[in-house]
Every structure is written in structure tokens, then in C-alpha cells.
Design brief:
heterodimer; A: mainly alpha; 12 helices; 1% strand; globular; B: 9-stranded mixed sheet; two-stranded parallel sheet
């Protein structure tokens, strides 16, 4: 009798503890957002929202300072789009190969290799990008410097790939076996089954994989700061240097006077980034839910 | 049950030990350590002073970290370091903030530094006037042929805005000390996060031009001779030329303490300014405050 009650009590505690940790993570996100808002919104007492979002020059430490983040937003978007264009086709193809085609041992080897790629610290990837990829791109395209948006895109594609491959691979593996059997029974070839049946059934999961990969890319800081040259100008091609939102915060936070306009502007950039990643994760979430149904 | 108890007591003992150790180490740290933070330009110099000082005072530990002049002053304001290294003078708002935190920042010039303007060794250009430098770094001149070089686009390299070197270069070269001037670095100037990154890029890019403290000059870059104006002579960035103030782009390197330096911090600053400390300045390729 007592042991039964004790067990119930224990269960109650564990249940509440788990609930609490779940609630905590949501509370933390909310608190972070509130903190960002509190620090960032003070910028707009002296600065119009339009001037901030669409201003073309970023000279934060001049007098008077100019806080136009359009070049930074475009820089982030350009690098992210480039990285997506490289990593999505390769990542999806790799996931299909691993899930559908690769024989047992090769499959395990490939999976381990891709997980290892995820474990490489971003500074190391940035370092390789700066020392080897940059000079290479400079000599291939005959451009004045190798620190460009393209260099950033290629570097970041490597960082998005593990996320895309492992989530897409999960989605593909989760497609019920009966679909494949039915397709083959109907006389479909292996390729037709993979491409028209399995890939289509796993599509929501693959979209989620892509979105999460992109989320990783847009938030990445260190590698991008090392390879993109960080020039705050409006880019007109992939072969020009760009400055991203994240690199700007990382490079300038140490200098900004706490509580000053520059400090607030950096937090306002944080708000913009937060909203962008929130949207991306939201889209990914919608697709993930659709895939579960 | 018994096992559980012993596990619990083992845990408790470890916890007590950890807390005890932490308390001890904090106490000893407070008594005999100096935290120095700030200018990347000065990291090597600060480190050399710290090592020599620690050799003379084995019980003292001196930790030196970089991050930029602004990082150093921010750390001094939040009381996470004892001395901030600055490669520029304090800004008025920083002095105001220090007073709000209840101390008067004390700035001490500990060394001088010439800013070298460097290009790739194969670049035929080897001397420029300050006006030409301002035109290049502000983006008015974009090709080497406009200033007597090859037909090659100029790649302008600058330090990030958290760098005292960046601020100094903008105020003294781009704006020529005129407060009302609005000249900025060219929008397409590459912002690199360290002096070493600039050195690396200049060494492998024949169109690049960058600047850093003269301690960073190596055989892989060529330092330009600089003239104040078209009529003045071109001067090489050497220790003698900085000391005689003939070289036009040189600046003081500062250490800032919280109020009048006391105890260990005062000992350390005295050591830095002593002949022995100033000899280290020469060894690290900076310029001593006075001729020794």
C-alpha cells in the first residue's frame, strides 16, 4: 500500500519535472526575445525603422553614425541562397542514396562520415575556407580578392549538409515499406520507385530538412566572418565581398559602448535575425507536422 | 540502500571539496594576479611584459588577452580586468561612463607605434603621400595605375571597427584630424578581424593594400614610405623615424587603470615604464616612450 503510494508520488514528481523542463525552454526563448526587444528597440527612438532596414550605408562608429542594414541583410541572403543552391541538391541526393541504394556497410560508413562533418568546429571550416578556398576562387575567377560571397556560400554549404542529409534520410527511411513494395509490384523500376514514390512521400520531411539546414546557415557566424571579407556594401554578384548580419554583431559587439546607439543597433540586428530564423523554423515545423500525418 | 547512502555521502564530500578548492583559488587569485585586456596590436607586447614581470615575481600571475581596444575598455568598465590596453585615446563617452561607475580612468602612455602601410612585395609602388593614402582607403582611387602602379584593381584591407588601429587610421589618415570631416573607409573595403589576417591577405594578393602596427611587418609584405604632403620627404616606418616623429602615422599605445594605480597594478606599470620594460618594447618591434 505504502509502496504503491510512494510510486505514485515518484511518478508525479518525475512528470512535473519533465513538464518543468519543457516549459523552461519555452520561457527561455521568450526571455531572450524580450531581452533583445528591450535592448534593441531603444534604437528606434532616434532612428526610423525604415532608415534602419532599408538604409544603404553602415558606418556605426562615425559621427553622426549611420545604421542602414540593407547591405547586411542582402549579404546574409546572398550567402544563404548560394549555400542552399549548393547544399540542397547534394544533400538530398546523398540522403536518397544512403537511405535507398547504399548497401549495408557503405551506408553505415557514409552516415558516420556525414555525422563527423557536423562535428567539425566552424572556425576550422572557416580557416580552411580562408587559407585554401579563398586563393583558389581568386585565381579561378581572376578577381581582386578571394574573400567573396561565393567563398562563404561554399564554406557554409559544408556546414548545412550534415543537417540536411541526416533529417532528409530519416524522412525517407520513415516512408512505409508497403509503398515501395506496391510500386515494384506495379512494375516500376528502382529509379521510378525512389524518385516518384519514396521521394514524393518524404517530401514534407525533406522540406523541413532543407529549412533547418538554411536556418543553420543564416545563423552561422565564425566561418562566415573569416571568409566573406565583411565589406558592408550592396553586393551585385557572388564574386564580391559581403558583410552578414551575424558577422556584424560578432565583430562589433566588443567595441560598442554599452547602452549607446551602436549597442542598440546591434541588438536590433539580433531582432531581425531572430525573426528570420523564427520564420524559417516555423515553416520547417509546419512541414514536419504534415509529414507525420 | 546502503550503497545509495555511500554514493550520496561521496557526492557530498566531492561537492564540499570542489567548493573549498574554488574558494581557495579565488582568494589566492585576488591576492596576486593581474588581468590585462584590450588592443590586439598590443597583445604580444603585453604578453612579453607579463612574462618578464612574472619571472621577477614568481608568485604573481599576469594574464593578457586581446579582442580590441573597445573590448578592453568594456572589460575595465565591467571590472573584469585590471588594466585595459588601448591603441587609441579614450573616447569622451567612455570617460563619462567610467565616472558613472565610480572611477577616474588613468591613461598612461607605455610605448609608441608606427602604423605601417603594406603592399605585396611585387607591387612597384613603394611610396605614397598621406593624400594618396586617403584617396585609396576612401575609395576615390581604385586602380594602381592611377598612382603609378600596374593596371590592377586596388583591394583595400582594413581592420574591423572594434580595432583602435581602425579608428586611428580613419581619424588621422582619412580625415586628417579634421573633426567635421565625413570621409569614410570605402564601402568595398574588406574588414578583417586581425592584423595577422591583413598580413596573410597582403602576402598572397598582389593588388592588396592594408595597414597594421609596424611590429607585424615581415619579409612577405612591403612597407611603404610615407610623406606628409607632396613637398615632404618620404619616410620609412622604422623605430628611429617614429621616435624622431618624422614618420607621419604614429600613435601612442596606452594602458588604462581604474583610478590611480595601486599595489600590484602600480608595480606592473612601474616595471613597464622602467628601462628594463622599455627594452622589451624594442624587442617586440615597437618604439619606447623615450630614447634609451
Amino acid at each position: 500500500m505504502t509502496s504503491n503510494r510512494l510510486r505514485k508520488l515518484k511518478e508525479w514528481f518525475i512528470e512535473k519535472a519533465i513538464l518543468l523542463s519543457g516549459v523552461f525552454s519555452v520561457v527561455f526563448v521568450l526571455l531572450i526575445f524580450l531581452f533583445l526587444l528591450r535592448e534593441g528597440l531603444s534604437l528606434f527612438r532616434g532612428e526610423g525603422v525604415g532608415d534602419f532596414l532599408f538604409g544603404k550605408s553602415w558606418y556605426p562608429i562615425s559621427d553622426p553614425p549611420r545604421f542602414g542594414i540593407l547591405p547586411l541583410i542582402l549579404g546574409s541572403l546572398l550567402v544563404t541562397l548560394g549555400a542552399a543552391a549548393i547544399s540542397v541538391p547534394i544533400g538530398i541526393a546523398a540522403a536518397l542514396y544512403i537511405a535507398e541504394i547504399a548497401p549495408g556497410r557503405l551506408k553505415e560508413g557514409l552516415k558516420a562520415g556525414i555525422e563527423l562533418l557536423a562535428a567539425i568546429p566552424s572556425v576550422v571550416i572557416g580557416f580552411i575556407g580562408m587559407i585554401t578556398l579563398g586563393p583558389w576562387i581568386k585565381s579561378i575567377f581572376h578577381i581582386p580578392t578571394g574573400l567573396t560571397a561565393l567563398t562563404g556560400s561554399i564554406t557554409l554549404a559544408f556546414m548545412a549538409m550534415p543537417t540536411i542529409v541526416s533529417i532528409a534520410e530519416d524522412a525517407i527511411t520513415a516512408v512505409p515499406r508497403q509503398y515501395r513494395e506496391a510500386a515494384i509490384a506495379m512494375g516500376a523500376t528502382k529509379w521510378q520507385t525512389t524518385w516518384r514514390i519514396v521521394a514524393r512521400a518524404a517530401r514534407p520531411g525533406m522540406v523541413a530538412a532543407v529549412m533547418l539546414g538554411i536556418g543553420r546557415v543564416i545563423g552561422e557566424t565564425m566561418a562566415v566572418m573569416m571568409v566573406t571579407g565583411n565589406a558592408a556594401m550592396i553586393p551585385s554578384s557572388f564574386l564580391q565581398p559581403v558583410r552578414t548580419l551575424t558577422a556584424t554583431i560578432a565583430a562589433e559587439m566588443g567595441e560598442s559602448v554599452q547602452g549607446g546607439a551602436h549597442y542598440a543597433a546591434l541588438f536590433a540586428i539580433g531582432i531581425v535575425l531572430f525573426i528570420i530564423t523564427f520564420l524559417i523554423n516555423g515553416v520547417a515545423d509546419i512541414f514536419l507536422h504534415r509529414s507525420r500525418r | 540502500m546502503a550503497r545509495k547512502k555511500s554514493l550520496l555521502s561521496a557526492l557530498a564530500i566531492t561537492l564540499i571539496l570542489i567548493i573549498g578548492l574554488a574558494a581557495c583559488s579565488r582568494q589566492s587569485q585576488q591576492a596576486s594576479s593581474i588581468q590585462i585586456k584590450g588592443s590586439d596590436t598590443m597583445v604580444n607586447l603585453g604578453q612579453a611584459w607579463a612574462e618578464a614581470f612574472m619571472q621577477a615575481h614568481p608568485k604573481v600571475s599576469v594574464a593578457v588577452t586581446g579582442g580590441g581596444s573597445g573590448t578592453g575598455i568594456a572589460a575595465l568598465l565591467s571590472n573584469t580586468c585590471d588594466i585595459a590596453e588601448l591603441s587609441r585615446e579614450l573616447k569622451p563617452e567612455e570617460i563619462v561612463m567610467a565616472r558613472e561607475k565610480g572611477f577616474e580612468p588613468k591613461q598612461i602612455t607605455v610605448a609608441l607605434d608606427g602604423l605601417a602601410v603594406v603592399v605585396h612585395p611585387a607591387n612597384p609602388v613603394s611610396q605614397l603621400t598621406l593624400d594618396q593614402l586617403a584617396a585609396i582607403f576612401s575609395g576615390a582611387v581604385t586602380n594602381w595605375k592611377e598612382i603609378g602602379g600596374a593596371d590592377l584593381p586596388i583591394v583595400v584591407l582594413s581592420r574591423e571597427v572594434n580595432s583602435g588601429t581602425h579608428v586611428y587610421f580613419k581619424e588621422h589618415v582619412l580625415r586628417r584630424n579634421q573633426k567635421e570631416s565625413q570621409v569614410e573607409f570605402a564601402a568595398n573595403a574588406l574588414m578583417l578581424s586581425s592584423s595577422q589576417a591583413i598580413a596573410d591577405e597582403v602576402a598572397q594578393n598582389s593588388g592588396a593594400i592594408g595597414y597594421f602596427g609596424m611590429g607585424y611587418i615581415s619579409a612577405k609584405e612591403k612597407a611603404l614610405a610615407i610623406a606628409k604632403d607632396a613637398a615632404a620627404p618620404f619616410i620609412q616606418p622604422t623605430i628611429d623615424n617614429v621616435l624622431s616623429q618624422a614618420y607621419p602615422i604614429s600613435r601612442p599605445l596606452l594602458m588604462v587603470s581604474r583610478g590611480q594605480p595601486r599595489d600590484l597594478v602600480a608595480d606592473f606599470l612601474n616595471f613597464v615604464l622602467s628601462p628594463e620594460g622599455q627594452k622589451i618594447v624594442i624587442k617586440i618591434d615597437f618604439v619606447p616612450v623615450k630614447k634609451i
